[in-house]
Automatic annotation (TrEMBL):
It is an enzyme of class 2 (transferase). GO terms for cellular component: plasma membrane. Its EC number is 2.3.1.20. Keywords: Acyltransferase, Glycerol metabolism, Lipid biosynthesis, Lipid metabolism, Transferase. This is diacylglycerol O-acyltransferase. The keyword rRNA-binding does not apply. Belongs to the long-chain O-acyltransferase family. Pathway: Glycerolipid metabolism; triacylglycerol biosynthesis; Lipid metabolism. It holds the Pfam family WS_DGAT_C.
Length: 453
């Protein structure tokens, strides 16, 4: 038994739904890459991860069914070196080569019968080194993953074996929500049931190539980061959130992309599944999945950039005030109780209503160091489920925002073009909002509103 051995623990039905969600076309793995300055010291790196990562039991446990119930069970043969592999590069890896390397890894399922995560270390990347960190979604969501990354890393280069006690998973305590009355809970449950029914009865959105049948050939792309202050300035000028700006920019990019491919864009709008965090940030150390996917009609049928931003903000605000996020989280819990085939049928029913997945993640606010090496960039790609094959992610790190795209090439054969158009859409919004009278200048937009998985 390893030194971090934990007793078996029940797995939530929601996490079990994610565990069973893998298909040939969509693997439920969160792919991320951490880029670092300087050469890699593998002995120091492995030692650091071996000391810190097992502080989260899920990283030394595997999933087993016991008496028909899913449980997290300690892997008695756990060995950290099975999960961290060095790939030596013959020469310094260019961005294009790195993108191809990541795409190859993203097609690989994680090894079964052991904890569902893996790190691939690339020793020669852009003058430094990189770690490809792959975690199955059943272990955690985006907010939990950031908690893990903060615990693995330090806020300075003075590395030591012992992690910072701040937010240490062994010292953290659960923040409890206020207890509601039975009447309030009953009304809330009725609203959740209403939204589950409503979502199942939605008409599918516009028929475009984004709804082509998937064949499982994926590609991951990204471009240099945006500066946080640029996006924050846009949000302040308009009195909206950073997430509203993100939704509006993606809407503009999708509109232009489809128009350039000969599609009619002024009719029915595209619909997105947007992730919506439902967890207290202080409870992120618990890992697991605690978020909803909300169905948002993107203003892709609107030509004016400012109007798109206003409509994006209005629709996101309405959803925040509804029970729709909790309804989709409840749906996943129900799906985890169904036979596997029925779960996939129900998931396909829901995901057929939309075309893309949008997520945003609040990453570390300051520079982080792992085993003494400074992390320069953090990029994350979230998986899609069911019939969805296009996912765009927005993650902040140390004053910059990294945009990343993960697509099925049957739906987006030229993902670099869509990524370029997303950056161009931010430029368009910046120019359009600057020309307006500063009616909402100075509106407080909390960075915490980035906090979706």
């Amino acid at each position: 038994m390893n030194q971090h051995s934990q007793p078996a623990a029940p797995m939530t039905r929601r996490d079990y739904a994610w565990h069973r969600m893998d298909t040939d076309n969509n693997i439920m793995v969160i792919n991320s890459i951490l880029l670092f300055e300087g050469p890699v010291d593998m002995e120091r790196l492995v030692s650091t991860i071996a000391q810190r990562l097992p502080n989260y039991p899920r990283f030394t446990q595997k999933v087993e069914l016991r008496r028909g119930r899913p449980r997290w069970v300690e892997d008695q043969h756990f060995n950290i070196t099975d999960h961290i592999k060095l790939e030596k590069m013959a020469q310094d890896v260019s961005r294009d080569a790195l993108q191809g390397h990541l795409t190859r890894l993203a097609h690989l399922p994680l090894a079964g019968g052991r904890p569902l995560w893996h790190m691939t270390v690339l020793d020669r990347v852009n003058g430094g080194h990189a770690i490809v960190f792959r975690v199955h979604h059943c272990i955690t969501d985006g907010l939990g993953l950031v908690h893990v990354l903060n615990h693995l890393t330090d806020d300075n280069g003075l590395h030591c074996r012992t992690p910072s006690p701040a937010d240490h998973p062994h010292r953290a305590s659960v923040v409890q929500n206020a207890v509601c009355s039975a009447l309030v809970r009953g009304i809330s449950n009725l609203k959740i049931a209403f939204h589950v029914t409503r979502l199942s009865m939605l008409w599918p959105d516009a028929r475009t190539p984004l709804k082509n049948r998937m064949y499982g050939e994926k590609q991951l792309v990204w471009l240099p980061p945006l500066q946080m202050e640029r996006v924050r300035a846009m949000s302040k000028r308009m009195g909206v959130t950073l997430n509203d700006v993100w939704v509006a920019a993606v809407s503009g990019a999708l509109r232009t992309y489809l128009e350039q491919r000969g599609q009619h864009v002024d009719g029915r709008a595209l619909r997105a599944a947007v992730t919506f965090n439902l967890r207290e940030k202080a409870n992120a150390f618990q890992l697991g999945n605690e978020f909803g996917l909300v169905a948002v009609d993107l203003p892709t049928n609107v030509g004016d950039a400012v109007t798109r931003l206003q409509q994006s903000s209005a629709r996101m605000t309405a959803i925040k005030r509804s029970h729709q996020p909790r309804a989709t989280m409840a749906f996943l819990s129900i799906a985890g109780c169904l036979p596997t085939a029925l779960q996939h049928f129900a998931l396909n029913l829901f995901t057929s209503k939309g075309s893309v997945v949008l997520t945003n993640i609040e990453g570390p606010g300051g520079r982080r160091y792992l085993a003494g090496s400074r992390m320069t960039d953090l990029i994350c790609w979230v998986p899609q489920a069911g019939k969805l094959g296009v996912g765009l992610a927005f993650i902040s790190y140390a004053g910059q925002i990294q945009l990343a795209l993960f697509v099925d090439k049957e739906q987006v054969p030229d993902p670099e073009r869509l990524m370029e158009l997303t950056y161009a859409a931010f430029d368009e919004l910046e120019e359009a909002t600057r020309e307006l009278a500063p009616e909402h200048e100075g509106a407080a937009v909390a960075l915490a509103e980035l906090g979706s998985p």
